[in-house]
Design brief:
Quinone Oxidoreductase, Chain A, domain 1, 20 strands, Rossmann fold, seven-stranded mixed β-sheet
Length: 343
Amino acid sequence: MRAIVVHAPHDLRIEDLPAAAPGPGQLAIHIKAGGICGSDLHYYHHGGFGAIRIKEPMVLGHEVSGVVHAVGSAVADMPVGTRIAVSPSHPCGQCRYCQQGRHNHCLDMRFYGSAMRMPHIQGAFRQEIVIERHQAFAVADHVSDGEAAMAEPLSVALHAVRRAGPLVGKRVLVTGCGPIGALTIIAARHAGALEIVATDIAPKALQAAALVGADRVIDMSKDAEVLQSYTANKGSFDVLFEVSGTERALRSALETLRPAAVVVQIGLGGDINFPANLLVSKELEWRGAFRFHEEFGTAVELMNRRLVDVTPLISATFPFDQAVEAFEVAGDRSNQMKVQLSF
């Protein structure tokens, strides 16, 4: 079978790899669709991010869907031909964090397409992959392969919304409207947010935010003063989802928050200076949101029940053997949201 392998910055190759047979509790999957994530782009353009660097060839990809084509002897509930979304998360289940139900903080996590460990955890941008049964979630007939591959980023958004606490009747600000930001808008609306305002500097991202349910979008490159109108009377928003990962976006948003508001930090862009005077004087709560676990099954079920629609965010699809072109296009935020590969 063939796979998409990164060797170094801008050195992406389609290579032949051996296929494997499933063990007793495993499934062999024909991959159908895969979404290019921000971390995939960092590996492609920069060879990694922060201290995490590629040290050996690595198959990229963790947002995938597929169909079961072989079943291990101990699996009785997932027949051949079942269409699935694949969770890329494989926690050990034994460490203290797994035992506490914090599987996303597993001490022995194996997450597809990650150079955090050595040897690296190979990814899922390949024609075939063997997975554990618990990683497979059946999708309804009406859910396309591309939609099913969106379950992973939707799970990130659902986890962030869970970290915010109850949202029913709350006023929400989302800064950064790339795929995760737009999905956070979807998740926040589903959780009962009364009003959602979104900011970005890319017209494509703002257009997508409006399509998926933002009540108002603000182009911070042209209309930054509009956001300032929300600072009156100590602020307007109960919750901020900061998805851009930039200090400038965070600082401009803090003045719009009401006392006791919650800030959920999703975006990663390096160190950020958080103004302690606002944290103290407004009694703000700043919370991180890292990956997901049980939210993956929820994401699939929401799509299966037609309770969310992620299709407006899929902006382009390329055959997997055009991976280099796909990665180059995916890096253009001015024109693209979620770029996917078809296998």
